[in-house]
């Protein structure tokens, strides 16, 4: 059974960079069958897709965040990472990583437990 | 940008059928997934590719998608089905979620 575990600081100051890591167990992030996505949820609000990374070369981002976000993958550690620059209070959210199928009709079949990141001075 | 619209709330009596809609331009041409999120928990996939159920999801969950509307249907609704439900589709290479529907079972 695949498991995803998000980690990183729970508090980030405004204008700084939010950096999170998702450690995957039970599957290889190098698999040709899956992308690996980040999704966030502000407190009391809905889900927002941030982007996805495919270790074989493709990365896609939400157009609304594309100028500030970078996703990367470390196959040696079986981890994916998220960097979001110039954060504001609007970036306060629970951040999830999720396995994303590649084949037609991609969907998020496994999710991490999420990590709450608060942007505050 | 592509948008998916869901009603903010819905209610159903135990044992009855709940239907949650998701609307978007030519949504029937896209593949829709549905996610259930109970309070304080991570989302769980309940339907993918319009109508397919992942293993472990009860048969009372079903989905359809045609025209501009996708529908999640829960038959014989149980109190444990009370949750927020989100539809999701792809606009080219980026994912879009609906705003979510809070389903109350009372």
Largest sheet of chain B: 6 strands, mixed
Strands of chain A, count: 11
Assign an overall shape of chain B. Answer: globular
Multimeric organization:
heterodimer
SSE order of chain B, as H and E? EEEEEEEEE
Structural class of chain B: mainly beta
Number of helices of chain B: 0
Beta-strand proportion of chain A = over 45%
Annotation, overall tally of beta strands of chain B: 9
CA(first)-CA(last) distance of chain B:
36 Å
Give unreliable regions of chain B as ranges: none
Q: Tell me the Rg of chain B in angstroms.
A: 13 Å
Q: Rg of chain A from C-alpha positions?
A: 14 Å
Task: Tell me what the structure shows.
- The complex is a heterodimer of chains A (121) and B (106).
- Helices cover 0% and strands 51% of the residues of chain A.
- Chain A is mainly β.
- In chain A, strand 9 (93-101) and strand 10 (108-111) form a beta hairpin.
- The termini of chain A are far apart.
- Chain B has strands spanning 9-12, 18-23, 33-37, 44-47, 61-66, 69-74, 83-91, 94-97, 101-105.
- With 106 residues, chain B is mainly β.
- In chain B, the strands form 2 sheets. In chain B, strands 1, 3, 4, 7, 8 and 9 form a 6-stranded mixed sheet that branches. In chain B, strands 2-6-5 form a 3-stranded antiparallel sheet, with no helix packed on it.
- Classes of the chains: A mainly beta (121), B mainly beta (106).
- Chain A binds chain B through residues 37, 39, 46-49, 51-52, 60-64, 96, 101, 104-109, 111-114, and chain B through 1, 31, 33, 35, 42-45, 48-50, 54, 86, 88, 90, 93-100.
């Amino acid at each position: 059974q695949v498991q995803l575990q998000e980690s990183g600081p729970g508090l980030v100051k405004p204008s700084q960079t939010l950096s999170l890591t998702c450690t995957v167990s039970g599957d290889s992030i190098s698999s040709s069958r899956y992308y690996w996505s980040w999704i966030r949820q502000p407190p009391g609000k809905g889900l927002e897709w941030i982007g996805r990374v495919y270790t074989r070369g493709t990365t896609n981002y939400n157009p609304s965040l594309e100028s500030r976000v970078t996703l990367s993958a470390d196959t040696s550690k079986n981890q994916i990472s998220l960097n979001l620059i110039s954060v504001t209070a609007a970036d306060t959210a629970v951040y999830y990583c999720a396995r994303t199928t590649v084949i037609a009709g991609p969907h998020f079949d496994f999710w991490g437990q999420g990590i709450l990141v608060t942007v505050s001075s | 940008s592509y948008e998916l619209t869901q009603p903010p709330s819905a209610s159903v009596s135990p044992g009855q059928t709940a239907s949650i809609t998701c609307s978007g331009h030519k949504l029937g041409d896209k593949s829709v997934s549905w996610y259930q999120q109970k309070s304080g928990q991570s989302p769980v996939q309940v339907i993918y590719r319009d109508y397919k159920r992942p293993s472990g999801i009860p048969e009372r969950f079903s989905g359809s998608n045609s025209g501009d509307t996708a529908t999640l249907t829960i038959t014989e609704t149980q109190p444990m089905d009370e949750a927020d439900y989100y539809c999701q589709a792809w606009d080219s290479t980026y994912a879009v979620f609906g705003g979510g529907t809070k389903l109350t079972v009372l």
